[in-house]
């Protein structure tokens, strides 16, 4: 991709220094599940970028002479040897666009505002923050990016670290994956949602119930891979694309019931793919289902606009408009926290 080749002319920049960046996590409403080639999604996805759940990263660099990558990663000050391998793979994928990776020795100091054991994926915010740091470094070396170019390149690079990370670079609603429904959409980077959004979808709330704190049994990467031979894959990709198109008038008109129907369908379809893959697997736990049932009962009896979505794990994201916060939070605290590990939850929102 020509557009993302480094803008640096031959540079003699060989100084030590540091850059830092913050990047939030995101929750997909239309899910990315299945990819090909170099992180190309099989269907478009759309997400809310969160606010309180973010990664803060500082990237320190020092010039070096030897070939190869030198990266050490510290999470909350603790050396994490396992993370360095993932960053090596990331560096290999992006080297054509970031030509100075072998000229420096890097130390990555990273902190997540959400607990590592919470089951909230840190790959989106973590890769997003690292990509933003690298683009900032290139800028400091004289690239001369506009603000838009900087974010677009960060999104492009973040995608090569973790697909969903490319959506986290922008706040609000973002879209990744080429689709006829969204002008300017691309398989290579995310874009800010370009259409009208009803005020009910501004500052949309996401209360995350922590149902499970353990490591996932099947990683997202393995899950994406299982879509390659999946008997229902074609229909799933088609229906995600269709759902994204259907969301556009829903978001414009503030049609909360239709929004809930579509978003819950997406979440259950994602897990249906896991249950019908070969080998089959389940990431929902009994308490995930208990919460879903309670949410449906509550909605029936209170006609409240409280909906759920799931990512690739057991935790439940509860979505509702800010104007219904009091009713929804009372219900969540009284009826749902007993299903969480040590009553733990995270209050977040998209803006
Ligand atoms: C279920 O972005 O974590 O959260 O590209 O292999 O890093 P990789 O996968 P990842 O997959 C996220 C899947 C999802 C849905 C979504 O966020 O769209």
Key phrases:
single chain, seven-stranded mixed sheet, globular, binds ligand DP6
Provide a count of the helices. 9
Ligands bound, unique: ligand DP6
Let me know the average pLDDT: 95
Beta-sheet strand percentage? 15-25%
Helicity, as a percent range: 25-40%
The major β-sheet equals: 7 strands, mixed
Architecture overview:
The protein is of the alpha+beta class and 351 residues long. The longest helix has 21 residues, at 233-253. Helix content is 36%, strand content 23%. It has helices at 81-94, 123-140, 147-161, 165-168, 220-226, 233-253, 256-275, 286-302, 325-336, and strands at 17-30, 35-36, 40-41, 45-63, 70-75, 78-79, 104-112, 173-176, 190-192, 205-209, 307-309, 316-320, 345-349. The strands form 3 sheets. Strands 1, 4, 5, 6, 7, 8 and 9 form a 7-stranded mixed beta sheet that branches. Strands 11-12-10-13 form a 4-stranded antiparallel beta sheet. A two-stranded antiparallel sheet has the order 2-3. Bound molecules: ligand DP6. Ligand DP6 is lined by residues 28, 31-33, 39, 45, 121, 123, 162-164, 220-221, 224, 270, 311-312.
